[in-house]
Each structure stands twice: as C-alpha cells, then as structure tokens.
Write a structure and sequence with these properties.
Length: 323
Amino acid sequence: MNEFLTVLTAVLPVFAIMGIGLWLRRRGWLSADADASLMRVTINLLLPALIFDSVLGNAALRRPENLLLPPLVGFGMVAVGVGVAWLFARAAGLTTKPEQRTFAFLTGLQNYGYLAIPLCVTLFDSGTTGVLFVHNVGPETAMWTLGVAMLSGRGPAGGWRKIINPPLAALLLALALNFLGLVCAPPVPVAFAGKVLLTVAHWFGQSAIPLALLLIGAIVADHLEEARGGRAARVVLVAALVRLGLMPVLFLLVARFLPCSIELKRVLVLQGALPSAVLPIVLAKHYGGDARTALQVALGTSAVGLVTIPLWIRLGEYLIGVN
C-alpha cells in the first residue's frame, strides 16, 4: 500500500499543475496570446536544458544498449498501438475515415513526454530519466511520420522536418559529450565555467515541466466545449479500454521478456501506463483529422488515467521488479 501511495503522490502533482493551468486560463491570468512565446521558450530553451541536466554524467547512457534499442522500441510500440487502436475504431461508433484515423493515432500514441518526464524523475533514478529521453526519439519520430500520414490519409507531408528540433539537437550533443566523458582534468577556468553552465542548465531544466504542464492545462481549457457532442461517452470508453487497458498489458509483456537494461524496462512500464498525448489535438486540426475525436480521446483518457496510472505502474513494479 505504501508503494501505491508513492506512485499516486507522483501522479497527482502532474494533474494538479495541469488543473492550475486550466484555472489560470479561465481567470485570464494565462492568456492565449502568451502560449506561442511560452511554448517556444519551453521547447527551445528549457527542455534542452533539462536534457543536458539529465544526460551529462549519466553512466547508464554510456552503455550502447541504452542508446540504440530505446528509440527503436519507442517507435515500434507506437506503431503497434496505432494498429491495435485502428481495430477498435468502429467499436467506438466512428464511421468516417477521418474519425477512424484520428481515433487510431490518438489512442495509439501515449503522452510520452510531458507526463512521463515528471513521473520518471519522481519515481526512478537519473539513469532512467536519461534513457527516457533517448526512448522518446522513437515516439517523436512516429508522431511526425506515422501520425501525420494517418491524420492526413496521404503521407508524412513534410513531417520529417519537424523531427529536427532543438531538443533532439541537445540530446545528440549531450549524448556525445557524455559518451566521451567530457574532458579529463580541464584547466581551472574551464572547469569553473562548466560548473556555472551546468548549474544554469539545472535551474532552467527544473522549470521546463511545470511550465509545459501549465500550458497543457490552458490548452485543455480552450477546447473543453469542443469535446462535447457526437458519441463522446462511447469514444472515451473504447479509447480508455485500449489505451489504459490493453496497451499497458502489451507494454508489460515487452518489458518482461525483452532482453534489455533495467532502465528501459522502467521506461516501458511507465510508458504503458500513460494516457493519450495532448499535442496531437493540434496536429489533427492541421492535417485534416477529426478535431472533436482527438479532443475526446486525449481529454477522456487523461481523466481516466488519473485513476489507472498508479495502478499500472505499481503492478509493473511488482511483476517486473523495476522499482
């Protein structure tokens, strides 16, 4: 019971900060006009800083198995999730191709970043957090390739270009520096400057997730009304059964039987427990998907996930021994 409460204590603050973001939007303290600039600061500065803070000095990321396998598994599990969700699209009462494609992609892609990172930092060690960033290259690639193709019904349509971004550049640079062990016995001025820069990166990195969660809560507040109507209850029920019922089992099976590091097993347990990602709501609007279906899946599974996330993580810790 104490272990379950530990997981629940890690989950609740994440949703609490999102709720505060929703409240700030409703109060008018966090305006929609500020979203774009705050998101640019988060993606281009704060998240790269968090990556440097998590990767540099990370012994787990000097092992080749933690550099090559995690992104492949990350991409593969999203592909499996999308395929499984596609089989259930009609069961959700969705009849048009845009609705079905949107349901499949939104249900198949877990919230691999902005929910996973704070939970990983709270529940596991820094080595696991570093492996999580490497793993996330896989879902990120899947989102901008497989996801864009699914939503548009055509192909990636330029989505490949979105993969090359500041967080990826920061990750590759940090991995290279970490793998090489930086510079042995640097001169005092260089060592002093490096310590200052790492401290700055640490402080900036600590701001990345709270700000991102506030923005997610604000975006949710903007779209709550749009999620109503249609077959909302049925869509949410089927999406939750797939995303938060079936997919965690598949993730646990992979974590149990895949010959991989303990850090990747922890990442898989965590990823399997997560609800659908929120960012694809925006992609659905932009690439010809069905925005209402996207909202229903993302918001519905997030609400149900508040209950199921601690249960699946605790079960994964028990069955696979990754605590």
